[in-house]
Amino acid sequence: MAKEKKPGLIAEFKAFISRGNVLDMAVGVIIGGAFNAIVTSVVNILLSLATWAVPGGLKGLVTVLPALTDAQKGMDGIGQKFDASTLQTHATTLAKANYAEQIANDANYLLNNPNLIESAKSTILGKYTLHGTTYTYNLSAVIDWGAFINAVISFVIIALTLFIVVKVAASFSKARLAMAEKAKAAVAKEEAPAEEAAAE
Fold first, then answer.
1. Could you give the CA distance from residue 77 to residue 86 in angstroms, rounded to a whole number?
2. What confidence tens digit (pLDDT) does each residue in 70-114 have?
3. Whole-angstrom Cα distance, residue 190 to residue 159?
4. What is the pLDDT of residues 1-44, one digit of tens each?
5. In 3D, which of 81, 71, 79, 68 has the Cα closest to residue 139?
6. What residues does 58 pair with on adjacent strands?
7. Residue 46, class by beta-carbon neighbours within 10 Å (0-12 exposed, 13-18 middle, 19+ buried)?
8. Is the pTM above the cut of 0.70?
9. Which of 65, 54, 55, 60 is closest to 142 using CA atoms?
10. Are strands 81-83 and 134-137 parallel, antiparallel or unpaired?
11. Looking at residue 144, what DSSP letter applies?
12. Which among 53, 51, 79 has a CA at the least distance from the CA of 140?
């Protein structure tokens, strides 16, 4: 008794990829990606308007939780958070602390080496993240209310849009079925007298 030959992996993949629903799904994924960009843009516009009075906008809606460990306390002299406008001051203070010995010998040491302050600024920016107009220490526990509100509004807009799309598609489908039924009835009506005449 001969064994049934099983299709190879390539043949199975070819059959899978050529199915209509796989192509429909691929188109859906591409359109979904494009639609996501539109939704993100609309959400950003709405949230910018809604949080106009909040310093730093939606990105400024964060709560920094109190430090429970030394790792969460932030850099010495700066702490867990600081206002963006004080970055230059903190960088200068850090540079002075790092080069205290050189400054003791030469009062103009920092003025003659401005890159030292820029280096201190880079060190600070490597450890802090800007949220609106406030820098927060990267190891601090932060509740990002802005991201949460953004996600909720995005969900509502997407859900509402999909609801409308489904309703419109259902009404088109219903109308198409009604037209098909009318066409069937018209064909049946035309065929009935011809069948009666043939029977006579």
1. 12
2. 899 999 989 999 999 999 999 999 999 999 888 888 888 888 888
3. 46
4. 555 566 678 887 777 766 666 667 777 788 878 877 887 787 77
5. 71
6. none
7. middle
8. no
9. 65
10. antiparallel
11. E
12. 79
